[in-house]
């Protein structure tokens, strides 16, 4: 009965607050305490009992009461942090205040006039919390700072959020101030050896406080994605600065809690249905706090500035600590933990639904990305052994699974970005040669081969049977293939046929002529074939055989017509069938056993919009691999001699849109889709390709190596077939396997790698993506639902 009474009293207090027209004095404790003193209201209750309309009404009609409510709630948190919450009553009060603030903050952020409220100083609020002895204005802290410091203290509060090290008596006030939180890190792992006993009450209390912290950080959601808003989030900047004495133990606690988590537990089937897993909620919040805290300061730190630890980029202590993790065992712990969690949704068991499946793989991918981006030594560690494949396989699984679902287009992008980043390193290509023996059920043709084959087969599936909005990713997918191609020792017949099928589709007249960028895709594929022929000819008889079988594709490209009549005829065909690429696949085979086909989103699924990604030439910078394997950056001026850079022929999307390359213009994907000439047949009329445009890039097509190969091998293969009456391809493959082209091919070209480079466009993409994910994943309670979010739009499928 008591619970119902307290809810009723709480609701009465809310009604009083919304109906009072006169300001209530801050000293009227009897009134304010109703909101947090005795109520046993859960966070879900608070959301139900404090409706959005009423918060907005108080904000508009009695702003001083809303201001006092926030101030009093923060004051209670500060007092709790100072006293260490020795009594249950104080613990309950802290939780109630944090729930109330979680409910109200989004409505403060959505109103521009209120956004500065937490950063103003409240008279009488001293720097040491509510210390009246200080001179009032001298030591006054902005409310936001008091709130963040109190939260940091409370996250290391003995018997509330951490295990007390003292037996018997409760810790006294001095102890809270003198407490060394590095001894209270939540989980063993990076920089900490002891694993404290699991305590689900502590986990629940941490989760409540982290939820409020995440809500504080979410001010970023209420600013539109423009260049001036790409500045820092003041809440994150302060919390991750040296002002927060718990920054190091908290960063370590969050990282360790995530990487040590094992959702399967003791391996008892269905255990997740029997026990509530409080750790999972904590892990989810920890990873969300981590990814929004780890933000670049202003500009991404260059490798040079990473060396000087005091560079601008590292005022954020979370970024600083992350970039300085260096022990091999720490890297191993983090990598194994992330791989275990990313692989979790793929685990197949004979008992349906018997193992717990986590839902936060998108946040884990962003965390993995940030680890590689901020800590280059971690990236090299990942690539040092075949452990990288434990990250690759889940990513390919997610890409393949999400390819038909427009609500998961952000997941497709983050997966491709990670592979683009990895493919810039030679070791990634080398690791792909490991045979693929796992049998993760995927809706792709069955094949026997390496991880490289898996990558190519999945990419082919994405391009030929993904939805239209993935077209901007084709450049990235093929750039990854080109980057790894010089290191691929032996492609399977399935993968070789898939690559040739892509060239066949991308080199038709109507596709080449129908948009200014489309010819780039053929250039990428030709470059990949050249790399394999020049550097890995010996093991790749399957690819050579596939090239010989499809030789007419190369001859057609070499003889590509460029007269106005043919161009117009091709564009007419484009208007009739606007599909980007032929959907009929080359010899489509049976899919893997146990796999489910990729399906579109359920109607009614919510999705967050994203800003468009920059063009591939802005996403990457070119490096040439020298004799000794080191990389030398290629200055942009030298691009024309590299085959595919005929960008002069048609400005890249962002250039043609903004006309000013130096400014950061962020377009939503929908706007970009409208601007992408290839995406709709009606817009083809704006694009009028001319013969001299076709000639400008046709002359650069890198066909010499392949033409020479065909010239030498085709007559030999035909002769064998006639002499021996062969129709059996295994004999031809045997001949090709032992053949050699030494001395017959042109001099090998230098290997060119396109390495991912961070820029303002990708930084803003990451910000909109991760906040969109966090918005949609926090539904119980729905923290931001129905508030006026500006960073992205929420759309219903």
From TrEMBL:
GO terms for cellular component: Golgi medial cisterna; Golgi trans cisterna; membrane. Residues 572-603, 635-661 are annotated as: Disordered. Pfam families: Hid1 (PF12722). It comes from the Eukaryota. Residues 579-592 have a biased composition (Polar residues). InterPro entries: Hid-1/Ecm30. This is HID1 domain containing.
